[in-house]
Amino acid sequence: MSVSRGGFSSRIGFIMAAAGSAVGLGNIWGFPTQTASNGGAAFVLVYLVLAFCLAYPAFMAELLIGRYGQANAVSSLEKMSRSLWQKKFAFFVGFGGIVCAALILSFYGILAGWMMSYAVEPVLTFVGLSDAAQWVISQSLWRNLGFTALFMILTVFIIRHGVENGIEKWSKRLMPMLIGLLILLIIYVVTLDGAAEGLNAYLNPDFSRVFEPDLLISALGQAFFSLSLGTSVMIIYGSYISKKENLITLGAQVTLIDVSIAFLAGLLIIPAMYVAQAQGVAIFAEDGSLINGSSLVFTVLPSLFESMGNIGSFVAFAFFLLMSIAALTSSISMLEGPVSYVVERHDIPREKATTLIGIGIFLLSMVIVLNIETMLDFVAIAATQYGQPIIAMLCCVFVGWIWHRNDVLMELKQGNDSAEHSIFWKIWPWYTKFVCPTAIGVVFIHSLNLF
Prior knowledge:
This protein is an all-alpha fold. The protein has one domain (7-447): Hydantoin permease. The chain contains 18 helices and no strands. It has helices spanning 11-22, 25-37, 41-69, 73-80, 84-126, 130-136, 141-160, 163-189, 195-203, 213-225, 233-239, 247-278, 293-307, 310-346, 350-370, 372-402, 405-413, 423-447. Helix 3 crosses helix 18 (423-447) and helix 13 packs antiparallel against helix 14. The radius of gyration is 21 Å and the shape is globular. The termini are far apart. It is a multi-pass membrane protein. It is found in: Membrane. The chain crosses the membrane at residues 12-32, 44-68, 89-116, 145-163, 175-195, 215-238, 250-274, 311-332, 353-372, 378-403. It comes from Colwellia hornerae. This is Sodium-dependent transporter.
């Protein structure tokens, strides 16, 4: 690995950074509500199985591409190519992932800004600035632009400092804070009236639903997309891993942390929703399903916190601080993809490249904010439902069909001499070649509502 590129200085540094990338806003509010709406513990079981049987193999494909190439996503894929058409294909896949990451960050920064504004609100209320507190949680142009800019400045600040002093250093600080806040909030919420009913809805299994098509597809999508696949992030993170590390073990550890935090998020969100119901807040939509998405985070839970009295302000601050941290650990990984490409392919200093790209993505965020009613959902759907699955599927195709099997094995054996004789090696190549592209294709088709 080139010294100028930098790299993760420790195993725990990579694990915290990769887990931070995987654990984002979707994990915190998406997984719990999907669980409650799809058979409770039955969904959790299916999710866990698919996370290790599908998401983990695809995750390993991207890590291997990165560590083998020791470069940005485009250059790493091109190093695996042996012909002109393969190199063109490599550029399409690698650059497509970079564009996808930039698009995700452009709308993600807006949502993260909202999280930060809701974290600031109870502080302003506590010090008596009620008008300012009301302004920061109101939908207005300047509020949206201001907090989006603040979030992007934080993201740019971290990435400007590189891998070891930026991504790794802050991931090792933020991830323990995120986990600690999550556990403290769980302990508090489960002591409240109504929490027991929420725990029952979340944990009581309905195994008759395990093989329902919608449940399987939902669990498949959640398991896959929760690991930041299809955005070039894990390729670039893989390129910063030492050749001495055992990738099979590292990948499994990140996957385990990701699904564990998603599970913990469920232990917080679902009981909190039923506590809100006990306080008179509506948590079910007109069709009988649990309220999810932005309505849950910005309507149901704030109503719950408000009903708690003085303690509610502290709980609200802790919750939205948790959400802001989750957003930041993901955003730094999404910015690193485009930055690494510009730094290495165009020989631009990291500080300058980070600032310019950060400004460019913020300008795109501004366009979205100015047309928020139509563009926010459009960009989100284009990046996550179209871009991510296509790019991730093509990465699996690259590893399974283009990269020579012996070269894959040689890369795996660096840091793990016995990889050739492991169960992983006997199963994983075929999974990557056949199962992963097929399963991802099924998720993609389902997202288009074609069946």
